[in-house]
Amino acid sequence: MSLLEPLWRADADRVAVTVGDQSLTRAQLAAAAERVARQVQGAGVVAIDAEASLSTIVAVAGCLLAGVTAVPVPPDSGPRERAHLLTDSRAVLWLGRAGSPLPADVQIEAVPIGAVPIDAGPVDAVRIYANGGAGSAGGTFVEPDTGLALLMYTSGTTGRPKGVPISRAMIAASLDGLAEAWSWTPDDVLVHGLPLFHVHGLILGVLGALRVGSPLIHTGRPTPSAYAAAGGSLYFGVPTVWGRVAADPASARALASARLLVSGSAGLPAPVFASLAELTGQGPVERYGMTETLITVSGRAAEPRRAGWVGRPIAGVQTRLLDDEGRPVAADGESIGNLEVRGDTVFGGYLRSPEPPQATATATATATEFTPDGWFQTGDAAVIDASGQHRIVGRARDDLIKSGGYRIGAGEIEAVLLGHPSVSEVAVVGLPDADLGQRIVAFVVGTGVQPAALIELVATELSAHKRPREVRVVSELPRNAMGKVQKALLK
After folding, report:
1. Taking 80 as the threshold, does the pLDDT of residue 113 lie above it?
2. What's the alpha-carbon Rg for the chain, to the nearest Å?
3. Each residue of 417-461: pLDDT tens digit?
4. 20 to 30 Å CA-CA from 351: which of 250, 458, 472, 484?
5. What is the dihedral of CA 32, 134, 100, 76, to 10 degrees?
6. Could you give the CA distance from residue 424 to residue 248 in angstroms, rounded to a whole number?
7. What digits encode the pLDDT tens for the residues 147-198?
8. Share of the chain above pLDDT 90, in %
9. How confident is the model at residue 281 (pLDDT cuts 50, 70, 90)?
């Protein structure tokens, strides 16, 4: 089944997507996608100004229909980042909302995509497509079943963002596995307000809805009041969003009729999980993934949920934990190991762009990213319990602390500290220590912070050897352009 196949099902007048106060039916979205496909067919790689708008959804759907690779560009990216994405991807077209100014630094052909109203035309004119190929006029389109759908870029924590080629097969495998895990059907109405240039907002939140055939309501901004007013059955959010919802009891209670809440992109603090469970009647399902692997592990809609635990591998995915010497780590729910994955959702390797730029849509893996037996090394540290449930404790490089003979995940300490009312942000790192090897240090942003109380909180909630030996109060945490904390600078 193609990613867009539900658009050509019966009930063409059913609303497919809504962004803010603008909507498109299935027939309108299909017709708009065809118009874009005719403009971009044969282009190879196309950049999209990925603002939260119907235009972005129409542009992505059109690229999928034409069989060209789309590069979602963050709308707030600066000239340096934007230049790198366009040069590295070798995009030849730029798609943006009609009337939206073309950034002065973009030197490629611009194709404006109108938002609404869009002339749907006769429904029969958009039901069946046969790909006419590059340069064809008046032909019809069949969405390809294979090939690259998207080229998405990592956040560049350790250097310039790296291109991740994402195939149609990867997307289909991840979305089908999640639809099964979450009992996601066309009867659901999905609500989220996440960015459309990340895996969470674009692949899960847009392509997921289109593939399943469930209507999507994008709230523009993920505010508690907007979520409450949407009246959906399935909600996606990141911990920051869910924290704000939990802090707004009236909005949270309005979600009590929802079938499922889903949290991802980072660990959900236990106090937020508990508040949502009390106010809505359910704690969110948590899931885990990366740009390079899409979503690989998730909780199930029909199974009990535990704060901080992200579930089991979805269909078609395998995981394993190894220690630093490559030996298996016990699945006892406590022992920390390096998480590796393989399966249908995993990419083949990063897009390479030597100087001068010679990037292509064919990527090759290197030994530093994959093991000799074909497992992708995620760089995350995790534990797995006897039932196969996973808990991510942080990045192995920055978040795995070796102190006094213990292997400690910074993530679980951060989750506890974020539950204290005086703490708004926190980053936990391991700093060199002559006695312990590394001592645990918490950098905290907050109001009225009392370091001794925070240290005692961790010792009580977790264990004494996981307590910070030092709490440093700071005005802000260093972050990169994508908002991720740069722990290397703290160290």
Report:
1. no
2. 23
3. 988 999 999 999 999 888 788 899 999 999 999 999 999 999 888
4. 484
5. 110
6. 16
7. 899 999 986 544 577 899 999 999 999 999 999 999 999 999 999 999 999 9
8. 56
9. very high
Q: Helical H runs in 254-406?
A: 270-280, 396-399
| pLDDT of residue 360 exceeding 60 | no
Given a contact cutoff of 8 angstroms between Cβ atoms, the answer to whether 336 and 407 are in contact is: yes
Residue-level length of the chain: 491
**Tokens representing residue 453 in the block:** 């109380």
- Cβ within 8 Å of residue 52, ≥6 positions away: 19, 193, 195, 196, 218, 220, 221
Q: How far is CA 228 from CA 208, 214, 246, in A?
A: 21, 19, 12
Asked if residue 201 lies in contact with residue 195, where contact means CB atoms within 8 angstroms, the answer is: yes
CA distances to 179, 286, 355, 455 from 208, in Å:
8, 17, 36, 42
Alpha helix positions (H), 67-167: 79-89
Q: Is 390 helix (H, G, I), strand (E, B) or coil?
A: strand
Q: How many CA atoms lie within 13 A of 375 on its CB side?
A: 16
Domains 5-298 and 404-491 share a fold: no
What is the residue whose two structure tokens read 């199974």?
A: 303
Domain boundaries along the sequence of the chain? 5-298, 404-491
Q: How far is CA 311 from the centre of its chain?
A: 16
Query: Cα(65)–Cα(48) distance, rounded to whole angstroms?
Result: 15
Whose tokens are 């069989």? That residue is 67
State whether the Cα torsion 191-30-10-167 is positive or negative: negative
Question: Which of the four CATH numbers 3.30.70.640, 3.30.70.660, 3.30.300.30, 3.40.50.720 does domain 404-491 have?
Answer: 3.30.300.30
pLDDT in tens, 362-419: 344 344 689 999 999 999 999 999 999 999 987 777 777 888 777 787 887 888 898 8
- End-to-end, the C-alpha distance of the chain in Å comes to 49
DSSP string, 29-94: HHHHHHHHHHHHTT-SEEEEE--SSHHHHHHHHHHHHHT-EEEEE-TT--HHHHHHHHHHHT--EE
39's tokens: 């403009």
20-27, long-range: CB within 8 Å, 24+ apart, which pairs? 20/218, 20/219, 20/220, 22/54, 22/115, 22/116, 23/116, 24/54, 24/57, 24/58, 24/116, 24/118, 25/120, 27/120, 27/123, 27/126
pLDDT tens for each residue of 186-207: 999 999 999 999 999 999 999 9
The reply to whether CATH 3.40.50.12780 applies to domain 5-298 is yes
Phi first, then psi, for residue 222 (nearest 5°) are -85, 60
